[in-house]
Amino acid sequence: MERLLKSIVKHFAVKGTVTSVKPLGNGLINDTYIVRTEEADAPDYVLQRINHHIFTDVDVLMDNIAAVIGHIRSKLEKAGENDIDRKVLTFVPNTCDGKLYFFDGESYWRMMVFIPDAETFEAVNPESSRNAGKAFGHFQAMLVDIDKELKESIPDFHNMEFRLKQLHDAVEADPEGRVAEVKPLLDELEKRADTMCRAEQLHREGKLPKRICHCDTKVNNMMFDHQGNILCVIDLDTVMPSYIFSDYGDFLRTAANTLAEDDPDIDHVEFNMDIFRAFTEGYLSSARGFLTPAEIENLPYAAALFPYMQAVRFLTDYINGDTYYKIKYPDHNLVRTRNQFKLLQSVEAHTPEMHRFIAEQLD
Length: 363
Hints:
This protein is α+β, with helices and mostly antiparallel strands and 363 residues long. It contains 12 helices and 11 strands. Strands 1, 2, 3, 4, 5 and 6 form a 6-stranded antiparallel sheet that branches. Helix 11 runs antiparallel to helix 12 (332-362).
């Protein structure tokens, strides 16, 4: 396998002599490898096989990333930042046509310069959540004035109206005869449907802009130096036009759930307000300068939107016969649905408190 990987590396404009190519990390989407070089003045690299079953248009994917990192690099240079190569990702062109990926006839590959003396963290706590809010808010702020048009690398990724249509189609088809048993859940989701499509409604009314968002805001998608300072945001595959709710609400859906999203002990599923307060404080500290009143007013809505959306998606897959998400047992998607719905209910209960906290941050 390593011999094959080294042959792939040769198609990129790398510096130095490659000594090894080994697996790196435990990502669920792309296959990732660390490429070590021999010379002291040559960087190491990260090689990735892009999952083109998820990212079906690799040109759009890489064009989005190139536009984003180019814009951020330009801003850092104009601001006189030092150590820029550790504060923005650098992709390596291939030696054939200069594109930022290489297609070997079966798979799509890309290479990045490895950022040395940096680390990521997995732990979710108030400190890491505050850092995440600050980092992702800053990331959005850096891209407010980007002059290149980005496309959706995954069309309708966070479009609530689209996700509800998928659910309605599944209910109508009922391929596994499961609709009857989940009728109470369907009724609860349907009662909230109009409210949860607020983002699309506001956008059509010209009251809510689409911005360039990360759309996969997890604690481990930030890199830090060894002194604990934020270097940059990583894992840019889902960078695309969206509402700021995509970055704000999706982080809280996972980070502020007191249990894992598939834990069946739903009686202990709660929305962790300490995580909410820390993340919101960090986010507003770096994003409030560009946010509109409508965006700020609807941050609690964003916190509710994403457990709702994920409940819809899990239930859709359960009704369809578990064709999208991997399951470990027959009712896995149903358990996930109930877990996310319980989280939604907890968010709803805390909504007045969330509005008060946000108002205090703006005083």
